[in-house]
Specification:
Blueprint: H1 9-17, H2 23-37, E1 48-51, H3 53-73, E2 84-88, H4 115-122, E3 126-131, E4 143-144, E5 148-149, H5 165-172, E6 178-182, H6 189-195, E7 198-201, E8 221-225, H7 228-238, E9 270-273, H8 284-299, E10 303-306, H9 313-326, H10 328-336, H11 344-359, H12 362-379, E11 385-389, E12 406-408, E13 411-413, H13 424-427, E14 433-440, E15 446-453, H14 458-471
Parallel strand pairs: 2-3, 2-6, 9-10, 9-11
Antiparallel strand pairs: 1-3, 4-5, 6-8, 7-8, 7-14, 11-15, 12-13, 14-15
Keywords: Transferase
Family: Belongs to the amidase family.
InterPro entries: Amidase, Amidase_dom, AS_sf
Length: 482
């Protein structure tokens, strides 16, 4: 069996049911790993805002007893029973702090559980730790004055990405089995790619959020795991209509079924391929890793079709910041209140979004969204899914603010968000997107690709994602405790 700290959830559940492994054993292994490998808030991985070990141990003992009873009675068990899950800090736990890295929120306590936490716990999952984010989850690096710097286990000089950086770091370092994430411009998929894990951005509303910001049609909460099967498992637990979120839809708890032979299931599937979405300069190592995935897919019998998108970098930035200027930036300003000590990246984000709101009002932001959605639909008209890189770069520096923009493959971009090919699919947020690993760059940091589906077609992205996972070799997980 794989080392317990990196054991996938599907295998762990099978071992629990067969009484070959106890939930207590798994949790104890993860806690020991955290204590050895997480490190301090400046130089370590630093993936957590807090740990809940005592409560988690009590829950693991109850799960152990439940498996013993179920084995005797030959009864089924809850879908996540005994599985440790690290929760992104923004996913509130009633009675626990909900600060989002903001000084204005210091000491604030949540009154209710977030819907995804409620569902994970009802399914038997054990929240043993809460993961770091940048302030208000508004950056693709993960550092803040409140929680320090979160680093990538594969290369401690690099960020694990953001905003779900703590989640990706915890999974890669073997400090959790599953993790929750959220995504408004790539905050699940960016860290998944940088940490060699899997992240899923579901169609808008498929996974319920917490009002009022659940009404933001760019956003979405979701799962991260180390495998496609694990990510599908957690997505199935999270998904479905919830009374607190009137944007949520669909049945609850329906399993996402993966093919028995994921490589054979690729035969004949039509995959549109864009190396840059028409709008993003991409570093050569990322291009090479993506091309390798394409070659493997073609060898497996998939039909890969080059597609052209008419998007430009200016168009993408204008579109997303018109939206953020109407919703996210005002929300951040309201939440910060009179506190002016925001992180430099948060100040820059608010300033850029405010300027964008002066240029484009809400109605015009709808027009900009519709143009990108129409162009994406036209490009995907003859294919089952679209494939493209997740990140344009092989790494971002862990503690940088990128106030001067970023240089990518000989091109300077004023905003470092150009380093990620993710935000167009928040504009087209009814499209499901699965981020899966594509290889490893020379700096030791993983690379990744996105599998983009037609609106609401979740099955196709998991089918292709499982095939890519089966085709692309994986390196051993990073050893931080040597």
């Amino acid at each position: 069996m794989t080392e317990l700290t990196h054991l996938d959830a599907v295998t762990a559940l099978r071992a629990f049911r067969g009484l070959e492994l106890s939930p207590v054993e798994l949790l104890d292994a993860l806690i020991a790993r955290i204590e050895r490998a997480n490190g301090d808030r400046q130089t370590g991985v630093n993936a957590f805002t807090e740990t809940l070990f005592d409560e988690a141990r009590a829950e693991a003992k109850l799960a152990e007893s439940a498996y013993l009873r179920a084995a005797r009675a030959q009864e089924p068990t809850a879908p996540l029973l005994g599985i440790p899950v690290a929760a992104k800090e923004r996913h509130s736990l009633a009675g626990r702090r909900i600060e989002q890295g903001l000084a204005a929120h210091a000491g604030r306590v949540a009154e209710v559980d977030h819907p995804v936490i409620e569902r994970i716990q009802r399914a038997g999952g054990i929240v043993h730790a809460r993961t770091t984010t940048p302030e208000f989850s508004c950056a693709t690096v993960t550092h803040s004055a409140m929680w320090g710097v979160t680093r990538n286990p594969w290369n401690l000089d690099a960020t694990p990405g953001g905003s779900s950086g703590g989640a990706g770091a915890a999974l890669a370092a073997g400090m959790t089995t599953l993790a929750t994430a959220s995504d408004i411009a790539g905050s699940t998929r960016v860290p998944a790619a940088f940490t060699g894990t899997v992240g899923y951005k579901a169609p808008y509303g498929r996974i319920p959020g917490l009002p009022p910001l659940s009404a933001d049609w760019y956003r979405g909460d979701g799962p991260m795991g180390r495998t496609v099967a694990d990510t599908a498992l957690l997505a199935s637990v999270m998904s479905g209509r919830h009374p607190v979120d009137h944007t949520s839809w669909g049945p609850e708890g329906v399993p996402i079924v993966l093919p028995e032979d994921p490589v054979d299931a690729l035969r004949g599937i039509r995959i549109g391929f864009s190396p840059d979405l028409g709008a993003f300069p991409v570093e050569p190592e990322v291009e090479a890793a993506t091309a390798d995935v394409v070659a493997r897919l073609e060898k497996a019998g998939a039909v890969v079709v080059p597609v052209d998108l008419p998007w430009t970098g200016e168009q993408v930035v204008r579109t997303i910041f018109a939206h953020f200027g109407q919703i996210l930036a005002p929300a951040m300003t309201r939440e910060a209140g009179a506190v002016t000590e925001l992180a430099p990246y948060a100040q820059r984000f608010i300033a850029d979004a405010r300027r964008a709101a002066e240029r484009d009002d809400l109605v015009n932001s709808f027009v900009l969204d519709a143009a990108m959605q129409r162009e994406l639909a036209a490009a995907m008209a003859g294919v089952d899914v679209l494939l493209c890189p997740t990140n344009a770069v092989t790494a971002l520096t862990a503690d940088d603010n990128y106030l001067d923009g970023i240089d990518i493959a000989g091109h300077h971009r004023e905003h470092y968000w150009a380093a990620h090919l993710t935000s167009p699919f928040n504009v087209a947020n009814r499209c499901p997107v699965l981020a899966v690993p594509s290889g490893t760059a020379s700096n030791g940091v993983p690379t990744g690709v996105q599998v983009v589906g037609h609106p609401f077609d979740e099955g196709a992205v998991f089918r292709v994602g499982a095939g890519i996972e089966a085709l692309v070799p994986r390196k051993p997980w990073p050893d931080l405790v040597g």
